[in-house]
Amino acid sequence: MAQRVRLPYKLLRLQEHASGPRSKPLSRPSLARGRQLRIQYYQVRLSSTAIPQSKNDTVLAKQTSGVSSAPLTWPHKGWDDKVVLEVVPSHRKPRTVSDRIAWGMDFLTGMPPELKPDGKHRKATAYTPMTESQWLVRFVFLETVAGIPGAVAGGLRHLHSIRRFKLDQGWIKTLLEESYNERMHLLSFLAMYPPGRLMRCMVFATQGIFYNTMFIGYLMSPSFCHRLVGYLEDEAVATYTKCLEEMDKGRLPKWTDPSFKIPDIAIKYWNMPEGRRTMRDLILYIRADEASHRGVNHTLGNLDQTSDPNPFIEQHSNVSHMHLAAVKPAGLEREEVLEKYAR
Ligand SMILES: [Fe+2]
Ligand SMILES: [Fe+2]
């Protein structure tokens, strides 16, 4: 249904400039009000249903053109309830030195354990549960990083295919689809948490560093990069599982409140059925996506990077590739993949 929105402060200024000389200066809204306006702005920007209602909304319409009306590039195939609930945190044991290095490099994304100050952990401070806003800060930041590896790997494999005049063994689509999926996670959280200046600066810097590091790393050792991403996804599953546990313990009352609404973009992307549109459902879906990335990347890390086929391309399997990957936390072994193709 169409909805009317208030314009954020910056857009009000723009609108005023557009309508002639300013007669009296606008007073800056309070911080809380400004934040509320930014939330509304992102909700409209990311909504597929909001349509500007009046002449006053034309600036907003211009800002959001092409965002609200664009169809989904890769609509989600949906999750089987059984698979969603079957997902569990796991850790693939490192087998080689390279695996150990990849696992060691993952220390930045892990959740701190819930320690109690006792004889064993004297320096531990009492665990303070995170609030909804703190969770969203974490999710938004991590998802901006998570969208990078698939895009780098898919892009480089695309270039390789063009350069070498050969097929890609079905890897490119899965990798690009993964980065698209991560971006939809980010956009869903953004509609609930509009980032401030500090967060934008951090994302800007992190993207510059991580993209270029990944680019060089993937040229040098694609299997190492897939293993690293596999371990990052291990942590992502653990993080979302922890969030679900916190919800179940009643520590996130805003999200468990029946009146809490998740963003339109999430409902549309995951095609979430009526009655199953709570924040808990959304986190369950996102966790299942992360579990699928975990299985895909651990599998790709096990394969010969130049000659082996991608076993997650749909036509090679009668199970959706995301479902297959989600229930294989350590990925498929190379022998399993080759055997599947030999059949
Ligand atoms: Fe994600
Ligand atoms: Fe992921």
What does this entry look like structurally?
The chain is mainly α. It has two domains: 9-64, no CATH class; 81-342, Alternative oxidase (Ferritin), CATH 1.20.1260.140. The chain has helices at residues 9-18, 31-45, 58-64, 81-86, 97-104, 132-164, 171-190, 197-220, 222-248, 253-256, 264-270, 279-302, 321-326, 334-342. Helix 6 runs parallel beside helix 8 (197-220) and helix 6 packs antiparallel against helix 9 (222-248). The protein is globular and about 60 Å long. It starts with 8 loop residues before the first helix and ends with a helix. The model is unreliable at 9-23, 48-57 and 59-68 (pLDDT under 50).
Q: Helix and strand string, N-terminal first? A: HHHHHHHHHHHHHH
Query: What is the radius of gyration?
Result: 22 Å
Write out the distinct hetero groups bound to the structure: fe (ii) ion
CATH class of the largest domain: Mainly Alpha
Counting DSSP H or I runs of 4 or more residues, the number of helices is: 14
Structural class: mainly alpha
The CATH homologous superfamily of the largest domain is termed Alternative oxidase
Please tally the β strands and state the result.
0
Which percent range fits the helix content?
A: 55-70%
Overall average pLDDT: 81
CATH architecture field of the largest domain: Up-down Bundle
Taking pLDDT < 50 over at least 5 consecutive residues as the criterion, the unreliable ranges are 9-23, 48-57, 59-68
Family: Belongs to the alternative oxidase family.
GO molecular function: alternative oxidase activity; metal ion binding
Function: Catalyzes cyanide-resistant oxygen consumption. May increase respiration when the cytochrome respiratory pathway is restricted, or in response to low temperatures.
Enzyme class: oxidoreductase
